[in-house]
Design goal:
Distance between the termini of chain A: 85 Å
Oligomer: heterodimer
Low-confidence stretches of chain A: 28-45
CATH topology of the largest domain in chain A: lipopolysaccharide transport protein A fold
Structural class of chain A: alpha+beta
Radius of gyration of chain B: 27 Å
Radius of gyration of chain A: 24 Å
CATH architecture of the largest domain in chain B: Sandwich
CATH superfamily of the largest domain in chain B: Lipopolysaccharide (LPS) transport protein A like domain
CATH architecture of the largest domain in chain A: Sandwich
Number of domains of chain A: 2
Order of helices and strands of chain A: HEEEEEEEEEEE
Mean pLDDT of chain A: 80
Structural class of chain B: mainly beta
Largest interface: A-B, 44 and 45 residues
Number of domains of chain B: 2
Number of helices of chain A: 1
Helix content of chain A: 10-25%
Helix content of chain B: under 10%
CATH topology of the largest domain in chain B: lipopolysaccharide transport protein A fold
CATH class of the largest domain in chain B: Mainly Beta
Strand content of chain A: over 45%
Order of helices and strands of chain B: HEEEEEEEEEEEEEEEEEE
Largest sheet of chain A: 11 strands, mixed
């Protein structure tokens, strides 16, 4: 009986230790996660917030996820948000478009955006990447444009030019001139 | 930490996506198509075509296409965008080595390699001669056939001019010179050097003997002399045209000969 009790206590302590370890690590993980901010919960007097994650969904069902190093909301303009090192993911019925930018200004209740500082758009379903300096547009319609140099790579296609207009997240792309398109084909298709 | 992992995943995704193009760039066996445009290049993803505007230059496999408007349709094969049809408008010029085609509207099907130039005026210039038409010039690069319709004018390398409503030609596989051709409707052959003219309803040319066989209301004119019959021949080497009797039609050969008058100084007058 004495032996059983000692074993039981030992096993109990081990379980307690494991539980403490699991709970502790879980709490630490929760603390290191960036703060989830819903746009309607942002307070007017909010200052610079470090590590943010914003989730949005428009009427069409398109989902937006914005992750940024910092978020700053200007007091003068209620709906203006400034983000540093932002990653925006647009989910259109499972088709993901990702936009990376060093600096981003989001206005009009998260509808309009103005990206700058090494803007990079990727669309995995189309094997698509777009690089430019600045990009302005709307999340709602997926329309955006720039007057800076653009470099697009999509599969075996490369397009370079001096300006860009995009409609519906890339269904229509206009690269302004002088524009240069390069298409590489496998030997079998010569 | 999570963010760093996210960044790494993001970057790895990007590097993976850009590899497809980069890999092909390094592949010496890959074929390249390039398009330059002064105004813009548009990409219609749903409709699967590109539009290039303003002084467009398209290059592929030795071909160079110049036009002010180029629309290129593509299909996706094994994850690759592959062009299957090109439409060019406004001051179109297509060149390959020493062959040049010009016109206002051109379509080129990359699958069957058929180029069609259509509009009020188009030309095709090659080592073997020059072709112009006011309706259509069709060129089949795969089957080595050419077709021209609508006031067709052909100038051969020996300065012989052939006019007809329609000409179909079989071309040499290597140098694309004419091997065999049929001219139909208002066929007119003129050798300015020899001063010979021939007219007929139908003309059949064979490069092996360089003779055009004429049939149907054949008329040969040499200086002021005219001979007519149902069949004839024009030898492009010698420039001599002859009327051949047609026993089937029992048509007689008719001729009008105008003797040349000698001038006072002993020369011949026109």
């Amino acid at each position: 009986m004495k032996t059983i009790n000692t074993k039981f206590i030992f096993a109990f302590l081990i379980i307690i230790l494991i539980l403490v370890f699991v709970i502790s690590s879980f709490i630490n993980t929760m603390e290191s996660k960036p703060a989830k901010i819903q746009n309607n919960n942002i307070k007017e007097d909010a200052k610079k917030i470090v590590g943010v994650e914003i989730r949005q969904q428009n009427k069409k069902g398109t989902k937006f996820l914005i992750v940024a190093d910092t978020l700053e909301e200007t007091k003068s303009e209620l709906n203006k948000v400034i983000l540093e090192n932002s990653f925006t993911t647009i989910d259109q019925k499972g088709i993901l478009t990702k936009i990376k930018a060093g600096h981003a200004v989001i206005t009009n209740n998260y509808e309009n955006f103005d990206f700058s500082d090494k803007v990079l758009i990727t669309k995995k379903s189309r094997d698509f990447t777009l690089r430019t300096k600045t990009l302005t547009g709307t999340f709602e319609k997926g329309n955006y444009q720039t007057n800076d140099k653009v470099d697009i790579v999509s599969g075996n296609i490369s397009i370079k030019g001096n300006g860009l207009t995009v409609r519906n997240n890339g269904e229509y792309i206009k690269v302004k001139g002088k524009a240069f398109l390069e298409m590489l084909l496998s030997n079998v298709r010569k | 930490m999570i963010k760093k992992i996210f960044v790494l995943i993001f970057l790895s995704l990007f590097s993976f996506s850009s590899n497809g193009f980069a890999e092909k760039q390094n592949d010496k066996n890959s074929s390249e198509l390039t398009v330059e445009a002064d105004d813009s290049i548009e990409w219609f993803e749903k409709e699967k075509y590109y539009v290039a505007k303003g002084n467009v230059i398209l290059k592929k496999d030795g071909f160079t296409l110049n036009a002010n408007f180029v629309q290129a349709y593509y299909e996706i094969k094994d994850g690759e965008n592959v062009l299957n049809k090109i439409l060019a408008k406004d001051n179109v010029t297509l060149t390959k080595e020493k062959t040049k085609a010009t016109g206002q509207l051109m379509t080129y099907n990359l699958n069957n390699k058929i180029a069609i130039l259509s509009g009020p005026f188009q030309t095709l210039t090659s080592q073997s001669g020059y072709v112009e038409s006011n309706k259509i010039i069709k060129f089949n690069d795969l089957k080595n056939k050419a077709e021209a319709e609508g006031k067709v004018k052909v100038i051969l390398s020996n300065k012989t001019v052939i006019r007809a409503d329609k000409i179909n030609a079989d071309l040499n596989q290597k140098d694309k010179s004419i091997e065999y051709a049929i001219a139909r409707g208002n066929v007119f052959i003129e050798n300015k050097i020899k001063g010979n003219k021939s007219k007929a309803n139908l003309g059949i040319y064979n490069s092996s003997d360089e003779i055009i066989k004429l049939s149907g209301n054949v008329t040969l004119t040499n200086m002021d002399s005219t001979i007519s019959g149902s069949k004839g021949e024009t030898n492009l080497k010698t420039g001599i045209s002859t009327i051949v009797s047609d026993p089937n039609k029992k048509q007689r050969v008719k001729g009008v000969f105008s003797p040349r008058k000698k001038s006072k100084n002993g020369g011949k007058t026109e």
